[in-house]
Amino acid sequence: MDDTTLPAAGQPGAPQTTRRGAWPYALAGALALEAAGLRLAAAAPEAGGAPAVAGQAPGLPDFPIVDGHVHLWDLRRTAVPWVRGNAVLDRSYGPADLSQQAGDVALGALVYVEVGAAPQYTLLEADWVVEQAARDGRIQGLVAYAPVEYGEVVRPYLDALISRGPLVKGVRRGWQGGDPRLPISDDFVRGVQILGEYGLSFDVLARSPEETASAIRLVERVPGTRIVLDHLLKPDIKQGALEPWRTQLRELAAFPNVSAKISGLVTEADQQNWTPADLAPYVEHALTVFGEDRVVFGGDWPVALQASTYPRWVATLSGLTAGLSPAARRKLFAENARRFYRLPT
Question: Which one, out of 71, 88, 139, 230, has a CA that is 20 to 30 A from the CA of 9?
């Protein structure tokens, strides 16, 4: 596919626009927020303190947001090998920690996304999330791991997953850092097709041009499954690289069943020195090619803590999208995640 394959205006999958001048975004406003000191401090509220109503801090959305990408883990219950030795992440993170660190962000609902647990623990991970959701009503969706690479044989695993109840909304089986040929194998493709039969979505976790090329070939063969691209497929923001990421993202946006998460960008930038200006071209391009109806906000907490507090990331994206209409901002920060993951209304 090339750029000419994008659907025409008004056709399914075509980028939507808001009012004239909404894009490019209010970069000057975002820079002003940064200059005003809106790093929203490393100091978190007192433990147990209730988050304030959104809008009390400058730059934050003035309505409860739906976070389409949150990780939680209890390292006493689940083995998560990749966090070992990480100064920020090698500890347990639960819903109470998120409440404390969200500060003035009004967090109305969240979608839990699998955390890369050791395979032996993935169903136990799902059980733990169901337990947490029973205690915290904000947890309204679960994107679980499933071994889709086994094709038809994934069905018993999916049956076990959905037996956990309606919290299960989708599956993520990434190939970041692995064999880029895996997702284009016939069995992997069949597994993702089967997700559509179960009414489950599929989160794509990939990052390099080679891995993204495989995502394109996969998407071509799974028109009946809802797809979302995690972290905008992790562009190399630290180096300021736009190609081939920009062209590949436009190609993926041509498929009407594909959405994109604006999440995880701060960890792809210079984690200690990033500014909103570093992120702006990537946010702008994603919103241009996917339109206001197929973009989902994600906090990627606590992984993003390596580069940003939770309020700082929310405020940054809010500033970068200040030119959107109020309706489009509600879609980005709440309604699109609710619709994509079929969350309660």
Answer: 230
